[in-house]
Specification:
Pfam families: N_methyl. The protein is an alpha+beta fold. The protein has one domain. Helix content is 27%, strand content 22%. It contains one helix and seven strands, in the order H-E-E-E-E-E-E-E. A five-stranded antiparallel β-sheet has the order 4-3-5-6-7, with helices on one face. The protein has a two-stranded antiparallel ribbon with strand order 1-2. It is elongated, with a radius of gyration of 43 Å.
């Protein structure tokens, strides 16, 4: 019996090489911002922002002041036109040739001056009031809003009066920061009178602002 011997040859294969990635770090030659540089940059940015905002605020404030000045001028002009109208009415009614050509404006000849309210009907109150009277509060002006003090609409709102100024403090009229005084000085009795209207207004930093408008009126019925 023959036996065959087999010699098994094992060949050990070489394992594949493992490749390990290599990281290489490079240092930057540029340095980062320091805290001081950052603070300076923030400060510059704040100045760039606050500058235009400050200018816008001042422009808005100047616009509000200008608007109030325009309102004050028209309030003064309204009073002068009222005096002219009443003077002409007196002349047409036959009072022009007498000393009564300024009839109805006697309170305006007083040193304290008078207040004129063209919106006041005869059955509500006089259109010419004396500023010296305590309840007239130095001829303080009110503006018609049609609202009660709590902001609710009053009963029977008069749309024709909305936004107008007067000396009434009844329901629907809101207190303003304007006062208007009218002073009449007869330069030549029965012939010429000087009408001076002073409107005072303001609140806060703008308190005490005023405008004065003057004009001469003539009795065109008087003999030359």
């Amino acid at each position: 019996m023959k036996y065959e011997a087999y010699i098994m040859k094992y060949t050990r294969q070489k394992s594949p090489e493992l490749t390990v990635p290599c990281f290489k770090f490079h240092g930057s030659s540029r340095a980062g911002f320091t805290i001081i540089e950052t603070l300076v940059a923030v400060a510059v940015l704040m100045l760039a922002i606050t500058g235009p905002l400050t200018m816008a605020e001042r422009s808005l404030s100047a616009g509000q002041i200008a608007r109030k000045e325009v309102t004050a001028f028209y309030l003064a002009q309204e009073a002068i036109e009222y005096v002219r109208n009443l003077k002409d009415t007196n002349a047409i009614s036959g009072k022009g040739g007498t000393s009564a050509w300024l009839d109805g404006l006697e309170d305006c000849k007083e040193e304290s001056g008078c207040g004129i309210d063209p919106t006041s009907p005869d059955d509500v109150g006089p259109q010419v009031i004396l500023c010296a009277e305590a309840f007239n509060r130095d001829c303080l002006l009110y503006q018609y809003t049609g609202l009660n003090s709590d902001g609710t609409p009053i009963f029977g709102v008069d749309e024709a009066l909305m936004g107008l100024f007067g000396h009434r403090s009844t329901s629907g009229w809101a207190e303003t920061h304007y006062t208007r005084r009218v002073r009449i000085d007869e330069k030549q009795p029965g012939i010429e009178a000087r009408v001076t209207v002073t409107v005072i207004w303001g609140e806060g930093t703008n308190e005490g602002r005023n405008i004065t408008v003057s004009s001469s009126v003539f009795n065109w019925y008087a003999s030359p």
